[in-house]
Amino acid sequence: MAIIQFVRNMDDLSTERGFQFKFHCDKCGNGYLSSFQPSVIGTAGSLLKAAGSMFGGGWASGAGSSASELQRAVGGQAHDAALSQASQEGKVHFHQCTRCGKWVCPEVCWNAKANMCDACAPKLEEEMASAQAQAKVQVARQQLFDKAQTYDYAGNVDMSAESVLRSPSPSAWEAPKAVGKPCSNCGADVGSAKFCPECGSPAKVEHAACSRCGCQPATAVKFCPECGSHM
To answer: pLDDT at position 73, please?
Structure first.
């Protein structure tokens, strides 16, 4: 059989009932499904097998088996002929590039102005749009890089050799515990309690001092008892 000059990627979907093929664009992979070509011998064999099952006759069953043997014997020739016909049908839906020889789909991979595939003759509008988008991304990255350089991320970090020796131990990194008010009687930590947990003395409550004369009243008042200013 002569060599079929067509796409490099093809799916053979043929069965014993007939032949069908799917051809793919050499560049993007878009496919075209050829028309189904029924197999005369395969159809005849199926009919004979069906007749044998219906009538229960050995002749029909034997004829069906003979048809299957004949299908295997001449199936190669029938398959090749079907492939050749499907290829001629599929070529109408693809264009062959005169520069690289690839068969490509006209919808995506063909440059009609240059009469070549867009791999050999890229489409100017698409290339310009792609280059513009890439240029914007590159400029945005550079602007972010330049802006990041103006910010001081490590101004308070001591990078000297001595700083390693002065580094605090892990225990020193722990958050300090909150210290409450000491008891005026025994000095124990009272915290926010109203009475000392050690001696039971009332906790001393400090009120705000007067902003005018500095007097600090023993109780909460609205006006200073010394100068009469609003507290």
So the answer is: 44
Q: What is the pLDDT of residues 57-112, one digit of tens each?
A: 444 444 444 444 544 544 578 899 999 999 999 999 999 999 999 999 999 999 99
| pLDDT score recorded for residue 70 | 46
Distance CA 4, CA 25 (A): 16
DSSP 128: H
Sequence-ordered list of residues with C-beta below 8 angstroms from that of 89, at least 6 positions apart, any chain = 34, 35
Q: Among residues of the chain, what percentage have pLDDT more than 70?
A: 76
Q: How many CB atoms within 10 Å of residue 122? A: 15
- Residue matched to tokens 């991304």: 137
Within 10 A of 216 (CB to CB), how many other CB atoms are there? 11
If you search the block for the tokens 């988008």, which residue do you land on? 133
Exposed, middle or buried by CB within 10 Å (0-12, 13-18, 19+), for 215? middle
Q: How far apart, in Å, do the first and last CA atoms of the chain sit? A: 110
pLDDT tens column, 130-175: 999 999 999 999 999 999 988 888 888 887 877 777 766 665 555 5
The whole-angstrom separation of Cα 126 and Cα 173 is 58
Q: DSSP states of 187-223 as a string?
A: --EEET-SB-TTT-PBPPPPPPPPTTT----SS--SB
The Cα–Cα gap between 9 and 80 comes to 16
Tokens of 138: 């590159």
| Beta bridge pairs of residue 19 | 37
Q: Could you say which DSSP state residue 230 is in?
A: B
Find the helix or strand (DSSP H, E) in which 60 lies. Answer: helix 58-91
